[in-house]
Amino acid sequence: MYSIAIDGPAGAGKSTIAKTIAKKLEFIYVDTGAMYRAMALYFIRNGIDPLDENAINAACADVHVGIAYENGAQQVLLNGENVTGLIRTEEVGNMASKTSAYPTVRATLLDLQRDLAKKADILMDGRDIGTNVLPDADLKIYLTASSEIRARRRYNELIEKGEKADLAQIEKDIIIRDKQDMERKIAPLKKAEDAVLVDSSDMTIEEVVECILEEFEKVK
């Protein structure tokens, strides 16, 4: 069985790229960010302060995040409820960035993530897959892009959905989230020493996909 780890900052296009590659290779795609977002949604719904680590730790005992697949697409379950369509808001993303730094939150999901990798060929994306979750992955990719490009992509995504969006605020949020992810004490966002750096700022989705598939051919 093979495993591919794709790490990188918020808005780098990890999910889009990972889904495309997983489909081409017929791998199981695991979006770990969605799992942290599901936990974040629980914290928001229950009015828990992201700065109150004790309250977050206590709440983790009441949270079960599961993964299911429908027609090959990952569905995220929060205590049995399919929350896939509820976890992509900026509010949930910001809560996830703050609370994913806590050891209890990470431990809650780590075993589930590693178990998934033992059962099938998988492609997993997140912030610390190559450095922490799957340190022995066959291929590690660090996918990034400039904050300006990432903000523009997110802005266009929201506009296409008919939502209001402020480009300057989105970029500001992305820069803050990068800082939080890179400076957290537990499993910070960083490029694994043996990861291949892919900067998608000036690349199309197709070019990024082709680049990563070429890298995978080298390790097969």
In brief:
With 220 residues, this protein is of the alpha/beta class.
Give me some keywords for this one.
220 residues; Rossmann fold; three-stranded antiparallel β-sheet; alpha/beta; five-stranded parallel β-sheet; nucleotide-binding; 9 helices
How are the elements arranged and paired?
Layout: E1 3-7, H1 14-25, E2 28-31, H2 32-45, H3 53-60, E3 65-70, E4 73-78, E5 81-82, H4 90-99, H5 103-119, E6 122-126, H6 129-133, E7 139-144, H7 147-160, H8 167-183, E8 196-199, H9 205-219
Parallel strand pairs: 1-6, 1-7, 2-6, 7-8
Antiparallel strand pairs: 3-4, 4-5
Task: Tell me what you see in this structure.
The chain has 220 residues and is an alpha/beta fold. It contains nine helices and eight strands. The chain has one domain: P-loop containing nucleotide triphosphate hydrolases (Rossmann fold, 3-Layer(aba) Sandwich). The strands form two sheets. Strands 2-6-1-7-8 form a five-stranded parallel sheet, sandwiched between helices. A three-stranded antiparallel sheet has the order 3-4-5. Helix 1 (14-25) packs across helix 9 and helix 7 (147-160) packs across helix 8 (167-183). One of its GO terms (cellular component) is cytosol. It is found in: Cytoplasm.
